[in-house]
Amino acid sequence: MSPAGPVLITGGSGFTGVHLARMLLDAGRPVRLLDVAVPAAERRFVLGADADALTEDMITASVDDWSAVLDAVRTTRPSAIVHIAAVVSPEVLARRPNLALQVNLGGTVNVLEGARMFDVARTVVFSSIGVLPTRQYEPIDVAHPLLLAGEGPNTGSMARRRSAPRPSATPTCSASGSTCGSCARRRSTAWA
Predict the structure, then answer these.
(1) What is the pLDDT of residues 128-158, one digit of tens each?
(2) Running DSSP on this structure, what letter comes out for residue 175?
(3) DSSP state of 131
(4) In this predicted structure, what is the pLDDT of residue 130?
(5) Which residues face 10 on adjacent strands?
(6) Nearest partner of 32 among 64, 62, 60, 65, judged by Cα
(7) Percent of the chain topping pLDDT 70
(8) What is the pLDDT of residue 89?
(9) Over the stretch 148-191, which tens digit does the pLDDT of each residue have?
């Protein structure tokens, strides 16, 4: 593997993917995109003069397709992989949870295994605020609950999220009455 190999960006047509590609290109790094669709017009704008070349050279595949991921890593021989591909749409998460599991978990395993098999020097697994539940307080810190009872696909939480007012004060733990962060059970406790 050559250190001059490209950076392979999964989810490269998405918002974060095209902005990362632009930054890497501006830094002189070669880039290859892997995604299920080519970048939309507003994302091509971010890529600027490189949009046509990146789109023509793009690998159109889903990360949940093991053979496609393996082939992409084998043929690209990247110096690094940045894995951003994910299903984060609340509607898709609610209506097609198995697809989300295949792409978000299975796709990550496929990318990591492809990187291991072909000795990719660096693999970065990206995430975003899209993985968090309804904000309980701001700024969000490491003590913020990651999963709240009653949230997630098939719980009706998507409708509640749209209509529920945002909390205006620091939450208190219903188990101890303490403010956030001071209760040892904070990750498994419902917030009042």
Answers:
(1) 666 666 777 888 787 877 665 565 555 555 4
(2) T
(3) G
(4) 63
(5) 34, 83
(6) 60
(7) 71
(8) 80
(9) 556 555 555 544 444 444 444 444 454 555 544 444 443 333 43
**Which residue from 79, 111, 72, 93 is spatially nearest to 161, judged by alpha carbons?**
93
If phi > 0 it is left, if psi is from -120 to 50 it is alpha, else beta; for residue 11 that is left
The secondary structure of 16-48 as a DSSP string is HHHHHHHHHHHTT--EEEEESSPPPHHHHHHHG
Q: Which domains does the chain have, with CATH numbers?
A: 7-129 (3.40.50.720)
User: Once rounded to an integer, what is the mean pLDDT over residues 111-140?
Assistant: 85
d(CA 30, CA 141): 35
pLDDT tens, position by position, 96-106: 989 989 999 99
Distance CA 78, CA 133 (A): 34
Encoded tokens for 122: 């660096």
Give the three-state DSSP class for 191.
strand
- Give the whole-angstrom CA distance, residue 50 versus residue 65: 27
The whole-angstrom separation of Cα 77 and Cα 154 is: 40
The type of residue at 54 is L
Distance CA 188, CA 175 (A): 10
AA letter at 175: A
Residues 150 and 161: their CA atoms lie apart, in Å, by: 11
